[in-house]
Amino acid sequence: MRSFLIELGVGRRTNGLGQFSGREGLDRGLFWESLETTQASQTPGLVERRAELKVCLLGDTGVGKSSIVCRFVQDHFDHNISPTIGASFMTKTVPCGNELHKFLIWDTAGQERFHSLAPMYYRGSAAAVIVYDITKQDSFYTLKKWVKELKEHGPENIVMAIAGNKCDLSDIREVPLKDAKEYAESIGAIVVETSAKNAINIEELFQGISKYLKLVFQSNCIFMLLGVKG
Ligand SMILES: Nc1nc2c(ncn2[C@@H]2O[C@H](COP(=O)(O)OP(=O)(O)OP(=O)(O)O)[C@@H](O)[C@H]2O)c(=O)[nH]1
Ligand SMILES: [Mg+2]
């Protein structure tokens, strides 16, 4: 059964957001530029924007981070995928309304021996996808540790998205969806259950991040116009 749950964390994280422009935007892994496309030049007043969004994936080894990225970027699933060594990088550009969002995706290695490398990837990220395996309670505890680390050492106001992967195995589930929803709400995160194997909610996960960042960017532009500090 397909599970659809994309919840936007609102409220808690909207105050104090940095203003995503110029150097500061780049430092946060977010870069927006206005561009006149062919279509735009033919249709006066229609200006499209292109955004680059740096996103990192964090979580226990084996939860399916690389599989999620592989499904999103290549629409492919490999049963025999190898554990990631260090980190891997992929990009994918998706439309979001009248904008084009290019995801710069850093897929980190979940094995403990690579833990110390993670800050290199989450620093400067606009969003982090923190993945757990719905059939492994331990991986949910690890997710909470990642959230704590991001809050203490990650970029201020990084957008967090929680992905409960392997929802195709819900008959052997250990983590109730309710627990994930409650936790996500408490930290103002996007939450969704995914299956890289069956291509469930993978697009929706990244679309949710896209839309959330777009909203945050727009609200900060309004604050800037009004002269209100975020
Ligand atoms: N049933 C099922 N298996 C999955 C799913 N996603 C990944 N797997 C399997 O889980 C195992 C681990 O997947 P990876 O994508 O390598 O996990 P990872 O989080 O990248 O692991 P590290 O690179 O070690 O951090 C592989 O055998 C995958 O085939 C899923 O949605 N459903
Ligand atoms: Mg991996």
Blueprint (SSEs and pairs):
Elements: H1 22-27, E1 30-35, H2 38-42, E2 48-59, H3 65-74, E3 87-96, E4 99-108, H4 118-122, E5 127-133, H5 137-153, E6 159-165, H6 177-187, E7 190-193, H7 202-226
Parallel strand pairs: 2-4, 2-5, 5-6, 6-7
Antiparallel strand pairs: 1-2, 3-4
The site of magnesium ion has 5 residues, from helix 3.
- Tell how many strands the DSSP assignment holds: 7
Rg computed from alpha carbons, rounded to a whole number of angstroms: 18 Å
Largest sheet: 7 strands, mixed
User: Are any ligands bound, and if so which?
Assistant: guanosine-5'-triphosphate, magnesium ion
Give the terminus-to-terminus CA distance. Answer: 41 Å
* Poorly predicted sequence stretches spanning 5 or more consecutive residues: 1-24, 40-47
Can you write the helix and strand succession as a string? Answer: HEHEHEEHEHEHEH
Strand content: 15-25%
Overall pLDDT confidence: 82
Structure class: alpha/beta
What is the number of helices? 7
Membrane topology: Lipid-anchor
Subcellular location: Cytoplasmic vesicle, Phagosome membrane; Early endosome
InterPro entries: P-loop_NTPase, Small_GTP-bd, Small_GTPase
GO molecular function: GDP binding; GTP binding; GTPase activity
